[in-house]
From TrEMBL:
Listed InterPro entries: Glyas_Bleomycin-R_OHBP_Dase (IPR029068), Glyas_Fos-R_dOase_dom (IPR004360), VOC_core (IPR037523)
Native organism: Actinopolyspora mzabensis
Annotated VOC domain residues: 4-131
Domain of life assignment: Bacteria
Record's protein name: Uncharacterized conserved protein PhnB, glyoxalase superfamily
Length: 133
């Protein structure tokens, strides 16, 4: 029986830059940082309490280009937080850029869900919602 998503792979151009962003700006923990193969690194990061990790995969630029061509800059990775406004203020103070500031979600006609969107140094976009919304 499947119990939990293990990890989500993000294709990045510069693993170290995105790793620094995840740990220094977002407060993520490094779960694995191992060298393998011909000078490659396998990097897993996560929110301290999470069971699902993000893998920062740096590989063939053609793969990243294809992903960007098909999906655009949106990573399709969303995070929960307990307080959207407080998290927005905290991350903004750390220098995280928010192309979409906290607002009502257009997909929730009852107006209970609020969301925001932030970007990493490579311009990849991530969604952020309040827990339980």
């Amino acid at each position: 029986m499947i119990t939990n998503p293990k990890f989500v792979v993000l294709y990045v151009s510069d693993q170290q830059t995105v790793l620094d962003f995840c740990t220094r700006k977002l407060g993520f923990e490094v779960r694995t940082d191992a060298s393998y193969g011909d000078g490659q690194r396998w990097i897993e990061v996560s929110v301290p309490s999470a069971e699902t990790y993000l893998v920062l995969a740096e590989g063939d630029p053609r793969v990243r280009d294809l992903v960007l061509q098909r999906l655009g800059e949106l990573s399709h990775v969303w995070f929960d937080c307990d307080d959207l406004d407080a998290t927005f203020d905290e991350l903004t103070a750390r220098g995280v850029r928010f192309p979409v500031e906290p607002r009502a979600a257009p997909w929730d006609p009852e107006g209970r869900t609020r969301w925001a969107q932030f970007a990493d140094p490579e311009g990849t976009l991530y969604g952020l919602t309040e827990r339980g919304a």
